[in-house]
Amino acid sequence: MESILISSNEFIVRLADLKNPEDIFSIIKVLDNYKKDSMGSSPPYTIKEREILANKFRDHPNLLVFLIFSKKELVGGAVCFTTFSTFLVGDVINIHDICILKKFRGLGFGRLLMEFIINKARELTCAKVTLEVREDNSVARNLYSSLGFKESTPVMNFWSKKISYNSGPYWK
Predict the structure, then answer these.
(1) How far apart are the two ends of the chain, measured CA to CA in Å?
(2) Cβ contacts of residue 35 below 8 Å, gap of 6+?
(3) 47-70: per-residue pLDDT in tens?
């Protein structure tokens, strides 16, 4: 079932139907674009990685994928996860990845996409929306700041540890 968040003659923002191969293809296209961009600095997805993403997207219980189109042309998207804040005792939407395709940047589509993610969080009665942003991504930082996002107090650092990449059950 398609959940349209907003529609006009110029654009549409909607939740992806994760059972629809076209929607899966669309978000993978957005993510691949993001990976190859200067902010992602990574090689494109392999065929195997695309298959794994498609399967995980179809099966993940806490996944929300937003897509934005302009006159039926893919503009960008966001991969979000619902989680829970023990301190706020409420649900959270975490924006894991968000990207507007290069030719549509600077036209306000990022703001539209962010606004609809925020509205979806309100609709779901979430306590907050979280995201991470690179320190050197001033364009994104300015957008997020203008929408009321700010660095947490105290400042939190994002840490990670890779665990046996390419060896889990999906790689067999």
Answers:
(1) 32
(2) 42, 43, 44, 45
(3) 999 999 999 999 999 999 999 999
Question: What amino acid is encoded at 145 in this protein?
Answer: S
C-alpha 146/C-alpha 162 separation (Å) is 33
Q: How far is CA 67 from the centre of its chain?
A: 9
Q: Specify the number of domains making up the chain.
A: 1
Query: Residue 135's domain is classified under what CATH number?
Result: 3.40.630.30
Does residue 75 contact residue 104 with C-beta atoms inside 8 Å?
A: yes
Tell me which amino acid residue 76 is.
Answer: G
- Preceding peptide of 21 cis, ω within 30°: no
- Model pTM? 0.89
Which residues form the domain of 105? Answer: 3-171
pLDDT digits (tens, 9 = 90+) for 135-151: 999 999 999 999 999 99
In angstroms, the CA 95 to CA 114 distance is: 9
